[in-house]
Amino acid sequence: MDLFLQLLADGLVRGSNIVLLALGFSLALGVSGVFHFAHGAIYTLAAYIVYQCYTRMGVSLPLSVIVAFAVCILVGTGVNQFLYKPLTARGTGRLLLVLVSLGALMIIQALISIIWGTNVLHFQPSEAVAPSAHIVLGPVVMTHVRLATLLICLGTFALFHYYFLRRTRYGVAMRALISDPTMARVVGVNQSWIITLTYVTASALAVPGALLIGWEEGFMPGSGFSLILYSFQAIVIGGLGSIPGTFAGGMLMGIVASLAHWKLGGQWETAVIFLVFLVFIIARPTGFFGYKVGKAEL
Amino acid sequence: MVDYLITVLTFVFIFGLAAMSFDLLLGYAGIISLAQASFVGLGAYSSALLTTRLGWDFIPAMLAGIVVATAFGAIIAVALLRLAGDYMMVGSLGFLFTIQAMLIGWEDVTRGTVGVPGIPFARIGGLVIRSPAAYLAMVVLICAVFYVVARRLVRSPYGRNLQAMRDDEIATVAVGKNLLGIKVSVFVVAAGMAAVSGSLYAHFVRFVDPYHYSLHDTFLLFCMVCLGGMATLTGPYLGALVLLGIPEAARFLGLPTGIMGHIQDIIYGTALILVAFLRPEGLLGKSPARTSTGGEPDHAR
Predict the structure, then answer these.
(1) A&B contacts, CB < 8 Å
(2) Residue numbers in A near B222 (CB within 8 A)
(3) Fewer CB in 10 Å around end: N or C, chain A?
(4) Does B273 contact A232 at a Cβ distance shorter than 8 Å?
């Protein structure tokens, strides 16, 4: 039982990492209808910017994080402004948009590799890291960073879902575009501007997750890339366009991954998650909270 | 120099075949799958393992690769193709990662991260194909056969069904076509062709490792199809020629070898973005980009 609780806690932390990446994907997909693969690279970029400022150049940590936010938002909106927006405007098909997004991911990732190399990097030199500080909660042991990951994920989700999307004008406009773009335009939502803001928000959401996972495990150019699959699966299980669904889906992925890792070993994790994913989408094609019908029109 | 050119050309045809199989899905049937590299991988690994471990001949091993890939293709197609486009795409991505994890993790069979070295030269009966030129000739022959097969396929009534389905699913159902049947069958055919490409690759390089069958490689095939021209059969080969040719030419610029792979990615990504903006139908594509069939007017501004 104790082991199970520990695994559950580990699963929730992994789920938090997935959720922190998936929220941005989910928002971009819901509002603009684009599979924003490049988000995976923007996520990775956040860690590298903090590394460059804080570790290499000795800028203070808070300032470095602010720079990371700024760069990520710039790149994220840039990808939308110069790629998705003009291509959507000229009626580019869905396939080509997916591809261009993948292309942007590959380019950013390659640039990161060229600038900083492909090795695993850490924010602090390994000898300076204190013997991992942890706290004990009953049977569960957690390092501070992991606990922080869980709390920040919960906080980000709560703030984003219960405050931003409900209480602010822009959040409400985003939800309107998610549920019915035509109707939203009719009542005067400026779609183009809200989509730009969506990419600002999505890119900002990537930063905390990237820093936390970077702090705990280190990071490399493919860090975001390797989380893309779980994030997309979380979004689909939760229901396309549903933020609480993404949260629940991500946590489920994390717990399943953790249990699969324990029972079967790390190499079968992807396969187990894929099976769970298949069972879910076949049994419930609209996801937990989805309101967009996902079944092909046969 | 001649050997070098032969090597590059052989790769162009091997990748061109995989890209052409992908084009059947993307260009003709309009199915967005990200899993195509897995089928290449299944073909390559089947060939590699059967020839090294059980001493099979080239042709039977290749046929076994086709069987393995089409079996996986059929299972995954039946499971996923009932879902709408986006779900299908995420599902195919899951399949891609799962197959790669299997190639890495199932060490007893696949030898895991080490890969399978020492794949023998292609042997057909008593004839062993050692020289690269002879291998190239065989690859070209096989590509030609599949080209003719694909051409007959897309021009047959079945091929017209495919394209009708791509352009308007509901209308295709309305005239009494079995949409799921068409989708599953084209998916399986494409998987089989991709497996052949994988087998050819395995016997040419004579080494396979599990890292060449990821999203990155699907992306490369994607680029070849888009650049050459979707819904054309020669386009993917042209795409392969251009996209494999540019990095080879860039090799002579004398850039540090460590970053060549990344430069290559940047070239592919940029090429793709340029195609999307300048010539969405690809180099050889005839019809204007299929814009009105996106099916999601909601998101078009």
Answers:
(1) 176
(2) 99, 102
(3) N
(4) no
d(CA A164, CA B246): 47
d(CA A45, CA A58): 18
In single-letter form, the type of residue at position B57 comes to D
Rounded Cα–Cα distance for residues B3 and A279 (Å): 50
User: What distance in Å separates the CA atoms of residue A120 and residue A116, rounded to the nearest whole number?
Assistant: 10
DSSP E strand stretches across B54-194:
116-117, 122-124, 127-129
Locate the domains of chain B by residue range.
2-213
**How distant, in Å, are the alpha carbons of A27, B16, B38, B129, B212 from that of B137?**
51, 15, 26, 10, 24
| Residue numbers in A near B170 (CB within 8 A) | 297
* CB-based contact B105 A298, cutoff 8 Å: no
Q: What is the pLDDT of residues B1-40, one digit of tens each?
A: 788 888 888 889 999 999 999 988 888 888 888 889 999 9
Reported ipTM: the value is 0.83
Spans of all domains in chain A: 2-119+140-283
Tens-digit pLDDT string for chain A (298 aa): 778 888 888 889 889 989 999 999 889 988 888 889 999 999 999 999 999 998 888 888 899 999 999 999 999 999 999 999 888 888 777 888 888 999 999 999 999 999 988 888 888 765 555 556 777 777 788 877 788 888 888 898 888 888 888 888 888 888 888 888 888 888 888 888 999 999 999 999 989 988 888 887 888 888 888 888 889 888 888 887 788 888 998 999 999 988 888 888 777 888 888 888 888 877 776 666 655 544 443 3
Residue A23, classified by CB atoms within 10 Å of its CB into exposed (0-12), middle (13-18) or buried (19+), is: buried
A-chain CB neighbours of B295 within 8 Å are 94
> Per-residue b/e over B52-88, b at no fewer than 16 CB within 10 Å?
beeebebeebbbbbbebbbebbeebbebbbbbbbbbb
CA distance B150 to chain A (A): 22
CATH number assigned to the domain with residue range A2-119+140-283, chosen from the 4 options 1.25.40, 1.10.287, 1.10.3470, 3.10.620: 1.10.3470
Whole-structure pTM value:
0.86
Chain A residues near residue B179 by CB distance under 8 angstroms: 296, 298
